[in-house]
């Protein structure tokens, strides 16, 4: 198999460096850098990317030997059709390891063409630590590293407004740009940096809030040979993503004009308010995921795809999405029907084997955030309870009993959540109404007492009784015709 580099692939050097990227994991390779590649094909002023990784792991050393080249496989279902293609990504100019290349990393701040900063350091990555020192090489936390880089740039260019940067964090936290800016300012104060630097960060740099969505599972060891045969090269940095993608950005008009990402023909939008996009993702995508886990598992399904393609549980999931979740949402600017169809296509992806148990982590808190608001909104709007979503709660209660078909269910949640639900089973008097009222009154989990809602405890108790008497498939069939 041919080694991948710019000579063997007959590829020109990377474009002028304009982007600093914190992180080189699967998500950024299969999402942000893939978007930049599409951008470069359509725009004269192309974007070259400097990747800065915390460590110099083997994959990054091999990626550097490949001159920054790698492939993105796109596999899945889009509009009901199978998608299976690959793209060569050519925009990476350098791959740095911050532990060994700290000085080189700081020198990139002196490059006048640098304009954009992107990151994906996990949700826990945007935080402040008083243990980080201004002369650490490098400091531990990502915002500390960014502060050092921005301060170097500020000093080198004497605080010139035209050398400020546009920062696009892609961590999955609400208001990620605002949070990151505040952490940079925290470090500036903690380290006693000049007040002028803080003003430059606040007034000249632009920190954009973003919402990102694409499943990028990467390429497993057992899939590497077939993947490399498909692209024709040995590729240490090859990755794989689904066809669906979303990048929503809150940005001022000037940024939208200079970086017209929304004109690429991709699912990228500029907006003044990310709330509708966040709500649709939480309610439809995440809500459907949380809804199907206990129901699908207790019906004998193992994966998301199996749950959706099974006649019984598939009808349950589709009914929950289109008949109970979507009617509660009124989100201007979002095509909810198309978004829901995209979600179901994603669930049916034959190239991603998403185990139900793997997404059962912290199901109690996920239910509170993703499903409970829809149940209450449905009742407020219609004066009745959504049968499938109430069944989900019954299935969750049964799931947390911890046993199924003579085996134990590996529950993964806070100890207090598991203990409450298991003790509710062992201590109740045999009446499902008693069990239902106890769980609905669980204010620590739900943030309120739900036991007083008229009719909810009765429907929940009936589903719990039906599951116990006839099994989960019978309860699902009942909810599908309710």
TrEMBL record:
GO molecular function annotations of the record: mannitol-1-phosphate 5-dehydrogenase activity; tagaturonate reductase activity
Domain Mannitol dehydrogenase N-terminal: 18-262
Any single GO BP term: D-galacturonate catabolic process
Top-level EC class: oxidoreductase
Keywords from the UniProt entry: NAD, Oxidoreductase
EC numbers, comma separated: 1.1.1.58
Protein name: Tagaturonate reductase
Organism in which the protein naturally occurs: Neolewinella aquimaris
